[in-house]
Write a structure and sequence with these properties.
Blueprint (H helix, E strand, L loop, with lengths): L6 H19 L5 H20 L3 H6 L13 H4 L2
C-alpha cells in the first residue's frame, strides 16, 4: 500500500472534513444528508491521515510528487 495522496490533497481533504463536521455539529446538516456527509468526512480525514486513497488506487491516480530517476551510469559509458 504505497502513498498516493500528496500534501495539497491531504490539506484539502482535511479542511473539507472539518467543514462538514462543523456543519453537522451546528445543525446546518441534518437527517440523511448529515449521515452521508459525515461518513464522507470520516473517509476524507482517514485518507488524509494515512496518505492513501483506495478510490485513487482503483482509478490509477496519484497526487504524490514523483522523484525523477537519475540516468543510469551504465548507459553513459561506451
Amino acid at each position: 500500500m504505497g502513498k498516493n495522496v500528496g500534501k495539497n490533497d491531504k490539506t484539502i481533504r482535511l479542511i473539507a472534513a472539518i467543514v462538514i463536521a462543523i456543519l453537522i455539529l451546528l445543525g446546518v446538516l441534518t437527517g440523511v444528508w448529515a449521515w452521508i456527509l459525515g461518513i464522507i468526512a470520516v473517509f476524507l480525514a482517514l485518507t488524509s491521515a494515512i496518505s492513501f486513497c483506495p478510490v485513487y488506487r482503483v482509478l490509477g491516480i496519484s497526487t504524490c510528487p514523483t522523484k525523477e530517476k537519475e540516468p543510469s551510469k551504465d548507459k553513459e559509458t561506451k
